Amino acid sequence: MASQEIETLTAALSRLPGLGPRSARRAVLWLIKRRETSLVQLVEALGAVRRALVECEVCGNVDTANPCGICADPRRDGRALCVVEEVADLWALDRARLFTGKYHVLGGRLSALDGIRPEDIAIDTLLRRVGSGGIDEVLLAMNATLEGQTTAHYIAERLEGLPVRVTQLAHGLPVGGELDYLDEGTLAQAIRARRPVP
Ligand SMILES: [Zn+2]
Prior knowledge:
Blueprint: H1 4-14, H2 21-33, H3 38-52, E1 54-55, E2 62-63, E3 77-84, H4 87-96, E4 101-105, H5 123-131, E5 137-140, H6 146-159, E6 165-168, H7 184-192, E7 195-196
Parallel strand pairs: 3-4, 3-5, 5-6
Antiparallel strand pairs: 1-2, 6-7
Helix pairs in contact: 1-2, 4-7
The protein binds zinc ion (ZN).
């Protein structure tokens, strides 16, 4: 029976995506063996991330500055806004380097199953951003899942009447595909061939 501290650490690690209780326990044992080197580095890196990271009040990105580096970058085209479900999607799309505008992170997707309603994600702030003007195109870059597409349709409806072109990523994304699992070439193609929402 391991000590309470080790049990707590194992339980915390086992909640990480991709880790279950067994791999969490292996990771803990590995860290204990290297408690003067790897464990110290991990503690310091976690502390640094915790101290430095803030959520951008404009777009919802996570960065060391608020507004974030993307919102503050004058070389980016503020007239094009790409709407994504999660920060991971923003990072994935930005790695593809084809979208030169700015972003808006919803922080989730509409889901009847999980009880996620429009007011639970950042749709109102999106409508305020678009409504305040200066934006020509809103690219809806939701995941190719049922919930992602439901969210995209809902937002497209709410944007009706505002003077913006609403586009979405091209078909060709695998159905059920989550953006942050796609390779950069596929993402770049989906951005390049984006099309108007009917
Ligand atoms: Zn930002």
